[in-house]
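Morning F.,

Quick status update on the modeling queue. The single chain you submitted on Monday has been processed. Sequence for confirmation:
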Amino acid sequence: MEESVVLLDFWPSSYAMRVKIALAEKGIKFEAKAENLSDKSALLLETNPVHKTIPVLIHSGKPICESLVILEYIDEAWSEKSPLLPSDPYQRSQARFWADFVDKKVYDAGKKVWKAKGEEQEELREELVECLKRMEAELGDKPFFGGDAMGLVDVVLVPLSCWFYTFETFARFSIEAECPKIVDWVKRCLQRHSVSSSLPHPNMIYDYALQFKRKGFAY
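Structure tokens below.
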């Protein structure tokens, strides 16, 4: 099933980074096709006509859209390799819950905090810190959210870490000071080639964010 795996990608997108990490964890070779979100390709519009967004995974000609859906597809399509979800139904439900929390709360706060100003930014900064503290509580003393090995929640959350420097610089705070366990977890994740090879340098993200503010690029 490894032939013809294509990822429609946009390099600063944490959502696309998730898919790269999952494919790397599974040892799946793929072709990444960079998208210009200001001038979307015919392939993107054809494979994701509903949302017209990346990432899109095209497996043997069949498109799968939305990053969380893609991650579960990858886990099921290559089930014999490094499972992302636990086999126990209850534990699986909890992993899905926290992945959804990251999507709806953590990512949302992160995307807003560096774009905001003044009191709004202060409120969003507090919201982001609160979300990360909730993730710290869920992590507990485990090496990874998946336990001894990376799992779905790890793959979903860790791409946001390359945006941490941007959040901190624009919103004037320290994630390490507020959430040291999260920073330690990020360092453990980065020791894995699947993660380090899939995430751009934080300075690249910061430079992109500066351009965004000046020119209104897409995130």
